[in-house]
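thread from #wetlab-drylab

HS: before we spend reagent money on co-crystallization trials with tryptophanyl-5'AMP, can we at least see a predicted complex? here's what I'd submit
DV: go for it
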Amino acid sequence: MTETAHPRRVFSGIQPSGNLTLGNYLGALRRFVEMQEAGVPALYCVVDMHAITVWQEPAKLRAAIRELTAAFLACGLDPARSIIFNQSQVPAHAELGWILSCVARIGWLNRMTQFKDKAGKDREAASVGLYSYPTLMAADILAYHATEVPVGEDQKQHVELTRDIAAKFNHDYGVDYFPLPAPIIEGVATRVMSLRDGTRKMSKSDPSDMSRINLTDDADAIAQKIRKARTDPDPLPETYAALAERAEARNLVNIYAALSGLDRDAVVTEFAGRPFSDFKPALADLAVSHLAPVTARIQELLADPAEIDAVLGDGAERAAEIAEPILARTRDIVGFVSSR
Ligand code: TYM
């Protein structure tokens, strides 16, 4: 079967659950802005339906949706150029999610490492939504025939599953309809690690707030968290390669490189032979100088929730205009009779 050329379109999403972290900022948000600046048509989604796969207090969820939207805008996403919306407002996601859950195989979902991590030991008590969530994520992407999905490394497996689902749909129905989207995982901060444990990723759901930098942290909190970040007793080496076995040290160097735009060897060279007690204040200054304007802008935007809701409303309309015809054709391919 020949591959139809699909026009480039970017789709990505972030869950409005808890605090946004430096990991979300470096691994996703900042990359979204770069792609916008490169002029690729894009949709950026506040995935509220994904958030409720674990319990969310309604009032807190409402606030988190607006806060994440404000963060999108504060980081530089421009609603005139990128479509910014919340998932629940475009029914195509849920509907295509169902169809794709009938395409995906249980064996495929059983391999998803994120479910294993999030469900923990008591899998029987996890919601069905938490288990089937990757099929909804596939629908998010495929409802727009998106071709590129910028994400951090932890989402790679889900984007690969989306490709498998798209290929199986095309194969089973004998069509060449859904593009196989590519995960775009670039830069030096595709997996920012916890500040307390270099083997775990920095996460908004980590019980220890000291493990992460939140986009809402003030300068003092950021400085304190970096000062207390776990490292080893050795000074910085001469080369980045020498950090291979030093996960925590490497993570701090990666963060410095991502924030400064320097390459990793240049960062190590600048501090070679010096202790982490010299490096950490420099890193804290750099983080504060990047995040303080973003945090301040988020607070300003949150003062006008009606404006945020208007951005989301307009984005949802534009998103639905793209998704609806794609869904209509999907129903037809599947064999549903269109009766009205
Ligand atoms: P979520 O909300 O957990 O994370 C949002 C984005 O941030 C990235 N990220 C990180 N990058 C680097 N280092 C880290 N420590 C780190 N932590 C998080 C994630 O990789 C992600 O890109 N299932 C997705 C949301 C989603 C989605 C989609 C993404 C739903 N539908 C469709 C792309 C396309 C999630 O839970 O991301």
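DV: The beta strands are 10-14, 42-46, 82-86, 148-150, 182-184.
HS: ok that's useful, forwarding to the group
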